[in-house]
Task: structure prediction
Amino acid sequence: MSGMFILYAEIRKYITTPLFRILNGIGLGLLLLYSFLLLGAHQVGLWYMTAFDYWVGSMNLYVTNVLPFLFPLFAAYTCVSEIQWRTLMFPCFDGIPRRAWISAKAALAGISLLIFTGLYMVVAIMLGGSLFPLREIYLENLSLSPGEAMLRVAAGAFWIGFILYPFGLLAQMLAILSRNFLVGGIGGALTFLAILILQSSAYNPFRPCFAVAQQIVQVGDLLTPAFLALATRALLMNLLLVVGLLLALVSVFEKKDIVLE
Amino acid sequence: MGGSNIVLETIHLAKCFGPVRAVTDLNLSIRTGEVYALLGPNGAGKTTTLSLIAGLLRPSAGTIRFFGKPGEMAGFIGVPPVYPHLSGYAHLQLAYQSRGLPPDLKRIQEVLMLVGLEQAQHRKAGTYSTGMRQRLGIARALLFPARLILLDEPTSGLDPEGMLEVRQLIRTLHQEEGITILLSSHLLGEVEQVANRVGILVDGQLRWEEDLESLKQESRLCEVEVSEPEQVGEAIVPWGTVVGRRNNRLTIRLHPGISLDQLNAGLVRNGFSISHLSRKANRLEAAYLEICHGIQL
Result:
């Protein structure tokens, strides 16, 4: 129960930081720019788009190009800022075990990822629905209503967010070790991008994870045994990575001297 | 070990940073209700010691025993930290939430008033002066019943008025609230004003520890005003040594075990007319200079 209170305090501290607003602003600013360009192209007849096309495009723009930088940076910042502000001494005096504190930071990273993705997708869905024609779409032989199509895109975005989450934990660990949020953030981001670029390689253990993301927006029927097996494998693989990194993060932080700025 | 009146003890505590020994074989016992001051020059290991006690640093060797529950130790190391984007009031609310407690708004207002921050409570803490941060740090330390408060150079960076206020606050906490305080400082005057017991740290080692009250009793420096001061030097050899002179007033360091009465009797026997005889007030300074720099007053 006290873990929930620690998490609530962490959320309250970090949702109000200027950096959180700026990073969200960057995502939304890019979305507006993207919308403006596509709407222009659509209006002059250069490029015909449906709302679904817009949603898929804006999702790809954000979750594979922008969020992999924004999220690890913010995750790293949630740890390093406490060293820079010297506020890391508060949990020590408050008698909060280091394990509980760092676990709350890991949970905070997950919640911030949900907010980054959720806020962007809500705005993208609203913009797409109001700027472009809402048509039913055909994936393979299956017809999807605009609402179903919208849910597919949102599910794809959150799934990629789920793949990205362990790289936020990696960024937090690197940040604690280096005491620098840029090192942590860029380290986490570059590792994710390397895996993303090599997603089609047969040796990439994340291959099933990316395949699931693609199939969510490309395959008609998702309730096939093949897709469910793929999704289960990807889910277990990512959960294993999350647990491993979480244990490593706790272990690193428990042994480390906290030398404040 | 750890009798009921002991709040905290360190046993053979040591901390190394690579080849550098910051704290060596430190044995400290802090008693309930006292203000214990760790005194020492810069780099003596005071902040490292407090950081070890607070749990920020892991000891290289030795043990720290705190005879209280987790969370019953409060305070700050160095300049009190703040979340720059949050108000002072929000800091105190967060202190409750971090401990899994609903904020006690009445208590928050009480401590804000006690430290004199009630007017600035809704300003962002990033805009606070050093003095206001010190007061916010102390306010946070006072929110919950604490068995021990750690204060690392609590008046550092403050203007004279701020120093006065913080010293007064420390005295109030000790005398009226009965709180045990462990503080570090390199300001002798400050320590003399607020502490009951003093330990001098040099190169990470506790070189000297004394009750300030008994120190006053045991002072070996005294001031004597006599009629013929130039002849005193040879006459008082059995009782002490002249270490300073201003006009007719001499500063004498007594030999160990010699009392002021014995010196008085010796001077009278030798025919000196004494118009003033007292113990010199700066005993802590004398001890500090001797231990830290080998200078004998």
About this structure: The longest helix of chain B spans residues 160-175.
